[in-house]
Write a structure and sequence with these properties.
Blueprint (H helix, E strand, L loop, with lengths): L1 H11 L5 E4 L7 H9 L4 E4 L4 H9 L4 E4 L4 E2 L2 E2 L3 E5 L10 E2 L6 E2 L1
Parallel strand pairs: 1-2, 2-6
Antiparallel strand pairs: 3-6, 4-5, 7-8
């Protein structure tokens, strides 16, 4: 991830602040800690157990602050704003991304 951030910085002159963990099969406290240590402020992800996905959608818990529980040299990592995609990585209802471009259904 550090190499990619450096490449984006060199090519586009910006440093990404949002992580994209689209198809990871697990998330640990280490993820939040590493993202925070690399300067990330937010994370978007898609995959989680289906029962937790239903709970997140029903209870509107798809967004939360993830406070890493790992300390470095006695200091806490800053919290990471997290958003769980509603429909995994499909387009929202009403939007078609087929046929080479975006179009409304």
């Amino acid at each position: 991830m550090i190499f990619t951030r450096q490449w984006v910085s060199n090519e586009f002159g910006v440093i990404p602040k949002i992580g994209w963990q689209l198809d990871a099969f697990s998330h640990s406290a280490v993820n939040a800690h590493l993202f925070a240590e690399m300067g990330m402020e937010a994370l978007v992800y898609a995959r989680m157990p289906f029962d937790l996905h239903l709970d997140a959608c029903d209870e509107r818990k798809a967004q939360f602050l993830w406070q890493p529980e790992i300390e470095t040299a006695g200091a806490e990592s800053p919290p990471l704003f997290v958003h769980k995609l509603y429909d995994h990585y499909n387009a929202p209802d009403g939007i078609s991304v087929g046929n080479g471009g975006y179009s409304m259904k």
